[in-house]
Amino acid sequence: MNLLKDGGVFCYPTETLYGLGCLANNKKAIEKIYEIKKREKEKNFTLLFKDLNMIKNYCNPTDIDERLISEFSPGPFSILLQAKEESLINKEIISDNNEICCRISSHEFVDKLFNFGNFPIISTSANVSGNKNIFLFKTIYNTFHNLVDSIIDYGDIEESLGSTIVKATKNGLLIIRKGDLDSNRIKEFYDGKSKRI
After folding, report:
1. Cβ–Cβ contacts within 10 Å for residue 85, how many?
2. Closest to 157 (Cα-Cα) out of 176, 142, 175, 140
3. What are phi and psi of 157, to 5 degrees?
4. pLDDT tens, 47-82?
5. Structural contact between residues 173 and 190, judged by C-beta atoms closer than 8 angstroms
6. d(Cα 90, Cα 34) in Å, to the nearest integer?
7. Average pLDDT score over residue span 178-182
8. Which residues pair with 150 in a beta bridge?
9. Which of residues 2 and 68 earns the better pLDDT score?
10. pTM beyond 0.85
11. Which of 70, 171, 173, 196 has CB atoms 3.0–4.6 Å from 190's, for a disulfide?
């Protein structure tokens, strides 16, 4: 965690893909990740949080948002939420709609990481924007060892589409990106629960 506090960028495993990350309040480290991925600044990153309580420190989830998070997290589930006005998260990774893509990872490394710090971490797939996902650790290492400050070796990973990203709106549930979590499961849960709002 000292590496992150000092503005470091690292490559680390999640339950879906290896990710590139840094603390979500460090402008210099965030810009470095944009450069590594060759990603347009208009495209924001997903942020990892320890739990729902941490999410509520930085965002304003609705009742149905909280139910969705509680039902499908931790795991390959991400949700767009409204950021709090006083959020300490760098404005560069908050969308023009004042939204943050939030996720609670189930991976043991990420879970342990939050034992050493209490601030959201960027999680963007370890690849160049537009390129295929990388599943072999050797390829991860060869691609990024000269670009990041640290790489966590958890070996090869199974093929993954990444997390499923959703947004709850007044007009229904939007599936922003299909991922490892079956979007039909999320819709079925949403349709059953949203009637109680």
Report:
1. 7
2. 140
3. -120, 160
4. 999 999 999 999 999 999 999 999 999 999 999 999
5. yes
6. 14
7. 96
8. 10
9. 68
10. yes
11. 173
Question: Which DSSP string corresponds to the chain?
Answer: -HHHHTT--EEEE-SSSEEEE-BTT-HHHHHHHHHHHT--TTS--EEE-SSHHHHHHHB---HHHHHHHHHH-SSSEEEEEEBPTT--S-GGGS-TTSEEEEE----HHHHHHTTS--S-EEEEESS-TTSPP---HHHHHHHHTTTSSEE------------EEEEEETTEEEEEE--SS-HHHHHHHHHHHGGG-
CA nearest neighbour of 87 among 57, 119, 120, 46: 57
Distance of CA 154 to the CA centre of its chain: 18
The verdict on whether omega for the bond into residue 74 sits within 30 degrees of 0, i.e. cis, is: yes
Q: ∠ CA 105-106-112 to the nearest 5 degrees?
A: 85
Question: Could you give the CA distance from residue 101 to residue 82 in angstroms, rounded to a whole number?
Answer: 9
Task: Give CA–CA dist 20/179, Å, rounded.
Answer: 18
Query: Please, what are the domains in the chain?
Result: 2-196 (3.90.870.10)
What is the CA 112 to chain-centroid distance, rounded?
Answer: 16
**Quick check: 37 and 20 in contact, CB under 8 A?**
yes
